[in-house]
């Protein structure tokens, strides 16, 4: 009887503790695709855009989510492409993410989607935009951005394109049907820039999708071999990121050293590896500081 009574008294306490540890989902007051943001407001709301649009943005206005995190999960034709993390700074917060479309081999009929989530269990909705035939699309800078009301949008590290080659087809399907019979190389510089951008952001899954699209643009044996090697290097980079997330610094450093030798400097993976080298140095320094604090506080 005492056990049953004690359990009944503890149940509401445990439920309250779970509620306090899991914040309420923020309210998504506005959400839409747009082609530009001015003065922290979207200039339009679109469900269709021309295929030659340079940049596409997804805009959100969030209420009652101070100090929480918002996620924009971008997908292309239903396939996950990139996840963007956005910090919510107050209970009225406007923020957006964007994606450069130039060089991705888009075609009319392709669809971009964004699913918005918050803390675990907070599914806030999904939106979609369809690409139409070419038209007069507004120009946009070739860099992804995200912004808040209180500070300018940050710009990710610049990507250095590989040497130019020859002109490429306009989209992946045309490339597969019209691949040159002499297996001549095509211009994949924009694709390489997109891959490097994704790797700089640590999005190995998005990089894998971009490599797949680049492979569809060429029938050249050397380029296909280069892309296969890049895909292999990207997988190794993903394994390195996993070791870093697990804070296994010795194993991550060993993996990085091997990759710095095996990955050529002209590969889009190489600049991302250099960034991870700096990150490992920082994490190693943090571990040393933590060990010093523990030693200082030991009895």
Summarize the structure.
By secondary structure, this protein is an alpha+beta fold. The chain is 40% helix and 22% strand.
Kindly describe this structure:
Helix content is 40%, strand content 22%. It contains seven helices and ten strands. The strands form three sheets. The protein has a five-stranded mixed sheet. A three-stranded antiparallel sheet has the order 1-5-8, with no helix packed on it.
Provide the residue-averaged pLDDT: 75
Tally of separate helices: 7
User: In sequence order, what are the helices and strands, one letter per element?
Assistant: HEEEEEEEEEEHHHHHH
What low-confidence regions span 5 or more consecutive residues with pLDDT below 50?
A: 13-19, 136-182
> Order of strands in the sheet with the most strands?
4-10-9-6-7
- Terminal CA distance: 45 Å
Q: Work out the number of β strands.
A: 10
Instruction: Report the β-strand fraction as a percent range.
Output: 15-25%
The share of residues in helices is: 25-40%
What's the overall geometry? Answer: flat
The largest pleated sheet is described as:
5 strands, mixed
Rg: 23 Å
Structural category is: alpha+beta
Comma- or semicolon-separated keywords:
299 residues, alpha+beta, 5-stranded mixed β-sheet, 3-stranded antiparallel β-sheet, 7 helices, 10 strands
Produce the secondary structure layout.
Layout: H1 2-21, E1 27-34, E2 37-38, E3 41-42, E4 48-50, E5 55-63, E6 69-76, E7 79-87, E8 92-100, E9 111-117, E10 123-132, H2 172-177, H3 189-200, H4 204-216, H5 221-245, H6 249-262, H7 269-297
Helix pairs in contact: 3-4, 3-7, 4-5, 5-6, 5-7, 6-7
């Amino acid at each position: 009887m005492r056990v049953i009574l004690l359990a009944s008294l503890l149940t509401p306490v445990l439920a309250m503790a779970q509620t306090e540890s899991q914040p309420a989902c923020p309210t998504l007051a506005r959400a839409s695709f747009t082609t530009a943001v001015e003065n922290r407001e979207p200039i339009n709301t679109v469900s269709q855009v021309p295929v030659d649009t340079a940049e596409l943005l997804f805009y959100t206005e969030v209420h009652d989510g101070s100090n929480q995190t918002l996620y924009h999960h971008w997908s292309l034709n239903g396939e996950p492409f990139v996840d963007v993390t956005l910090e919510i700074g107050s209970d009225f917060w406007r923020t957006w993410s964007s994606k450069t479309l130039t060089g991705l081999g888009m075609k009319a009929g392709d669809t971009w989607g964004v699913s918005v989530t918050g803390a675990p269990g907070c599914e806030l909705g999904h939106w979609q935009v369809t690409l139409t035939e070419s038209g007069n699309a507004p120009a946009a800078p070739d860099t992804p951005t995200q912004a808040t009301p209180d500070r300018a949008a940050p710009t990710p590290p610049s990507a250095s394109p590989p040497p130019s080659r020859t002109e490429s087809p306009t989209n992946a399907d045309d490339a597969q049907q019209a691949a040159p019979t002499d297996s001549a190389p095509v211009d994949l510089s924009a694709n390489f820039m997109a891959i490097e951008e994704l790797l700089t952001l640590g999005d190995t899954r998005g990089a894998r999708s971009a490599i797949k699209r680049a492979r569809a643009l060429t029938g050249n044996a050397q380029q296909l071999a280069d892309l296969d090697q890049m895909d292999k290097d990207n997988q190794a980079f993903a394994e390195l990121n996993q070791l870093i997330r697990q804070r296994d610094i010795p194993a991550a450093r060993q993996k990085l050293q091997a990759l710095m030798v095996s990955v050529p400097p002209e590969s889009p993976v190489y600049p991302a590896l250099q960034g991870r080298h700096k990150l490992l140095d920082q994490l190693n320094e943090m571990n040393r500081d933590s060990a010093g604090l523990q030693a200082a506080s030991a009895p």
